[in-house]
Every structure is written in C-alpha cells, then in structure tokens.
Amino acid sequence: MEDLASYEGWRNRDVEIPRTPGAPTLLEVRSMGWYSMFMAHGVEKTPQREVRGPVAALAIGRRPQRLLLGRKYTHVHIQRLSSSSSGGGFARWRVRVLPLEAAREISGSVRGRTNDVLWCPAGLRTVNFAFDRKTADGGSVITHMAPDGRTVTTVMQFGTVRGKMRIPGPGYLRIESLGPWEVSI
C-alpha cells in the first residue's frame, strides 16, 4: 500500500498530518539510527489553542512503530531523546501516514515485536494475548479504538503478561510493547 504522506527530520518538530474526516490516523514512526530514540505525541491544533496528547509511540532503534491517533489530532510532534552522554549526533526519524487498511486484521494468530495496530472485524468478541515476560513489566498495554476514532477503551490490565480480553466491537487494537507479543482468536 502506498503512503498517504511521508516526512523525515532529525530535530524536534510538529508535522501536520493529512486526515480522513471522521476517522483516526494510522502512522508509522521509525528512528533511522540503531541507538537513537524518538517519542511521538498527537497534537490538537486550533486557532485558539494547542494541546499535546500523551506519548503515542517510543521509537528506539530501527524497528518501525505503528500508532493510531484519534481523530481530534491534527499534527504529530516528534521529540528526540538524548542523554548528556550521547554527544548529540545526527540520528534521523521518519513518519509515514498509512491508509487505515494497512492495519493487519486479527485472524488466527498475529505476532509482533514492537508497537502495532490491528483491525478487529465485527463479530470478534474475545481475543487471547501474550507478552514476553521481560517486556510486560515495562508498560505493555492494549487499547481498543472505535472505527470513528472517538472512543478508546483499555481492554487489558496494565502489566498483565497473558490472558483473554473482551473486545467492545469492531475497531482497532493498539498494542504498546517494547518486546515480543502475540494476539490470537
């Protein structure tokens, strides 16, 4: 599938994202250096105000991280993370805006190694999940977003390693994990 838009940079930056009215936006964030780190936040900009949302993705190393921004966000803010010992450097980042159809559909078993977004078709009510025990303690969480991007529901307890979760209806599962995971029917 073709990108709807693509942006690159190496400094902190707000990027305006093309949006589909009444729908969330699927993004892929990637750090272009092996040891570089970037955070991505959704930003809601209007003529009257600017509100930055919570961290939507943490890109570490070169693995692409998929995230889903709610429909209220007009921009994504990319923030470079560096320690005083890193010496700065020129690591780059890349943001791709993807069509919603690029989200993998849950059928059978789906595995991943980083943050990802999966499509839950109508009729799917319970899903099994498992996280790598080493990374589950680092804040692994799964949320469900309705197809219109308005409602977000946490569908698993924070820090749970494996179990079953109830899906409120069709929509997207946002999986946040810094390590291996599996979702199955």
If you compute it from the alpha carbons, what radius of gyration comes out, rounded to the nearest whole angstrom? 16 Å
Q: What would CATH call the architecture of the largest domain?
A: Sandwich
Contiguous uncertain segments of 5+ residues: none
Principal-axes shape call? globular
Rounded average pLDDT: 86
Protein name: Acetoacetate decarboxylase (ADC)
Organism: Streptomyces syringium
Helix and strand topology:
Layout: E1 5-9, E2 13-16, E3 25-31, E4 37-45, E5 50-60, E6 65-69, E7 75-81, E8 93-98, E9 104-105, E10 109-112, E11 116-120, E12 126-131, H1 133-136, E13 141-145, E14 152-154, E15 162-166, E16 171-176, E17 181-184
Task: Briefly summarize what is shown.
With 185 residues, the protein is an all-beta fold. It has one helix spanning 133-136; strands at residues 5-9, 13-16, 25-31, 37-45, 50-60, 65-69, 75-81, 93-98, 104-105, 109-112, 116-120, 126-131, 141-145, 152-154, 162-166, 171-176, 181-184.
Structure keywords:
5-stranded mixed β-sheet; 1 helix; Jelly Rolls; 185 residues; mainly beta; 4-stranded antiparallel β-sheet
Question: Can you characterise this structure?
Answer:
There is one protein chain. This protein has 185 residues and is mainly β. It folds into 2 domains: 5-100, Jelly Rolls; 103-184, Jelly Rolls, CATH 2.60.120.380. It is built from 1 helix and 17 strands. The strands form 4 sheets. It has a 5-stranded mixed β-sheet with strand order 9-11-16-13-14, with no helix packed on it. The chain has a 4-stranded antiparallel β-sheet with strand order 1-8-3-6, with no helix packed on it. The radius of gyration is 16 Å and the shape is globular. The model has no long low-confidence stretch (mean pLDDT 86). It comes from Streptomyces syringium. This is Acetoacetate decarboxylase (ADC).
